[in-house]
Specification:
The protein has about 325 residues and is of the alpha/beta class. About 40% of the residues lie in helices and about 15% in strands. The two termini are about 15 Å apart. GO terms for molecular function: transmembrane transporter activity.
Length: about 325
């Protein structure tokens, strides 16, 4: 059992903060950051083990980073916060170089971007196992993956999707083939030209739309445009909290065109060998993270304006994974 006074230390390392262009937590959070294991937590001891937790710089990643920090702190770890690292490549390099010890990564990102594999694997378990095996050569170990799969999808307003009887992208493609006027899309700038974006999905599902039926938006603006009726169909990511807040219908990618982006904790192999307790401590979080859960947590931040630290703490308290002294 960890010592009763164990808590989440926010001792950011100045040199690392400068290198990684921004640390996450600041000292002005008036929150009860000292935590103990909850009744559902795995009893494993990390007392006084210094662990640097990193994350990328978007809401979902920052929340997951803080969830991880609370769990490790409850087990007694001396946690250093380096969430909110700008850019996937920077966070990856921080893990490889030892500036951080653990972060959560996405299978599709690793496979395509880091491991330079051109063809994603449609089955999520097979994709995970392929990434895990390949990344061992880089001195990294992937723990088990979560159900949470932050991949691309098309979304529609629920009344429109229900009226047209659209639940899958195959059904969407058929509607567009019969009535091209139904195929008005709101897309982000990058998505419109990527092979794993709009050109590829049109080819995979056998439909096409004229240029006038495509409206281009900056990152994130698609959601409000879709909700406001500027288009019938929008490009979204499946775990974004705005899907829930705006009551959007996620259209199933039934041919699994888009890569799988299941998330999993990734730890340097040597660090995990020194501290094998990390695997069972993080497993309850792996088991609880799915798309619906992350939509709710992200919506609290992006829609309601809550702080990610508070959102992470409240979730773990509700799940019985931590308690307050």
């Amino acid at each position: 059992m960890p010592k009763p006074n164990t808590g989440l230390r926010l001792a950011a390392v100045a040199a690392a903060c400068g290198l990684l262009a921004g640390c996450g937590l600041e000292s002005n959070f008036a929150l009860p950051l000292d935590v103990l294991p909850g009744p559902e937590a795995v009893r494993a001891d990390l007392t006084d083990v210094r662990i640097v937790v990193g994350s990328k710089d978007f809401t979902e990643q920052i929340i997951i980073g803080h969830l991880t920090e609370f769990l490790l702190a409850a087990a007694g770890a001396d946690v250093v916060d380096l969430t909110n690292i700008q850019g996937s490549n920077s966070s990856r390099q921080a893990l490889l170089s030892g500036d951080i010890d653990v972060q959560w990564e996405y299978t599709g990102t690793a496979w395509v971007s880091y491991l330079a594999r051109s063809t994603p694997i449609p089955d999520e378990r097979e994709q995970f196992e392929a990434v895990r095996e390949a990344d061992r050569a880089n001195g990294l170990e992937w723990l088990d993956y979560a159900e949470l799969n932050n991949t691309y999808a098309f979304a529609m307003r629920k009344p429109v999707a229900e009226e047209l009887g659209i639940k899958t992208t195959s059904q969407l493609a058929e509607v567009i083939r019969q009535d091209p006027g139904q195929g008005v899309f709101c897309l982000e700038t990058e998505f419109i030209s990527r092979d794993d974006g709009f050109p590829g999905v049109q080819k995979a599902y056998g439909f096409s739309v004229p240029p006038g039926n495509v409206k281009i938006f900056g990152a994130g603006a698609v959601y409000q445009a879709l909700a406001n009726g500027a288009c019938a169909i929008g490009e979204v990511t499946t775990t974004d909290g705005r899907n829930l807040a705006l009551d959007l219908a996620i259209i199933e990618d039934d041919r699994k065109f888009f890569p799988q982006y299941n998330v999993a904790p990734v730890i340097r192999t040597d660090f995990l060998a020194e501290h094998p307790q990390l695997r069972p401590i993080l497993q309850p979080l792996v088991e609880r993270l799915d798309n619906e859960t992350m939509q709710r947590l992200s919506a609290r931040v992006d829609v309601d304006g809550a702080d990610p630290v508070e959102v992470a703490r409240d979730f773990l308290l509700g799940e019985g994974l931590i308690t307050l002294p």
